[in-house]
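Why does residue order matter? Because the sequence determines the fold. Keep that principle in mind as you read this record.
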Amino acid sequence: MLWALAAGGQLGVERMLTLLRDEVADTLRQLGVPHLTDIDDRVVRAVAGRRPVV
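Structure:
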């Protein structure tokens, strides 16, 4: 965040937060969970290839 602030001021930080939000949303879609709070040990095991998400 400090780099974004130093490089682009407030707009840089806003852009960085937008990119972070979009990356988290993409990752959640790929995991098949709607919210960050829905990631639990079942999701972690499934990603590790141990068992499918139910």
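Residues 2-31 form the longest helix (30 residues).
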